[in-house]
């Protein structure tokens, strides 16, 4: 039962991002998170508030016509109120007829706080990307011209 709640917590970040339901995203994050997308962006991991992460995603993801994240192969290990989650992820990002696909794995640390599982660390491990790798820049440009 707890493993299912933990997996739902991780899934909610990505479904919320795809749906642009930012409150849903923020509600499954601890107040502060270590976010590490360095394998994709080249930027180092950073400790950010959940509000900072949501604001960054609000100013990026809506530049795509739509996004679709798929997560699978969940491995959950728990020890008391701490859990580690490893899963496979694929994210498709669309603008017009162009698509940018990113594949890799995620490692998340989840902590039970006041009876609710919240993400405290999220790391993406890039395996490959394909399609139009210039689409992120196009998404940002699209948002800036609105």
Query: How large a portion of the residues is in β-strands, by DSSP E?
Result: over 45%
Residue-averaged pLDDT? 96
Gyration radius, in Å: 15 Å
Number of strands: 6
CATH architectural category:
Roll
Strand order of the largest sheet: 2-1-6-5-4-3
Helix content estimate: 25-40%
Strand count, sense and barrel status of the largest sheet are: 6 strands, mixed
Low-confidence stretches: none
CATH topology: Nuclear Transport Factor 2, Chain: A
Notes on the structure:
The protein has about 150 residues and is of the alpha+beta class. The protein has a single domain (about 1-135), classed as Nuclear Transport Factor 2, Chain: A, CATH 3.10.450.50. The protein has five helices and six strands. The chain has helices spanning about 1-20, 20-25, 40, 50-60, 135-145, and strands at about 30-35, 45-50, 65-80, 80-95, 100-115, 115-130. It has a six-stranded mixed beta sheet. The longest helix is centred in the N-terminal third of the chain and has 18 residues, at about 1-20. It is globular. The mean pLDDT is about 95.
């Amino acid at each position: 039962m707890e493993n299912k709640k933990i997996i739902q917590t991780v899934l909610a970040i990505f479904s919320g991002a795809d749906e642009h339901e930012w409150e849903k995203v923020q509600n499954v994050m601890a107040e502060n998170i270590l976010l590490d997308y360095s394998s994709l962006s080249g930027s180092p991991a950073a400790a950010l508030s959940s509000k900072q992460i949501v604001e960054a995603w609000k100013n990026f993801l809506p530049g795509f016509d739509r996004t679709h994240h798929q997560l699978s192969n969940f491995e959950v290990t728990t020890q008391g109120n701490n859990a580690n989650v490893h899963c496979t992820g694929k994210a498709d990002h669309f603008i017009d007829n162009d698509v940018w696909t990113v594949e890799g794995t995620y490692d998340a640390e989840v902590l039970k706080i006041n009876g609710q599982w919240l993400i405290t660390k999220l790391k993406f491990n890039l395996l490959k990307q394909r399609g139009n790798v210039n689409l992120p820049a196009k998404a940002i440009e699209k948002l800036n011209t609105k």
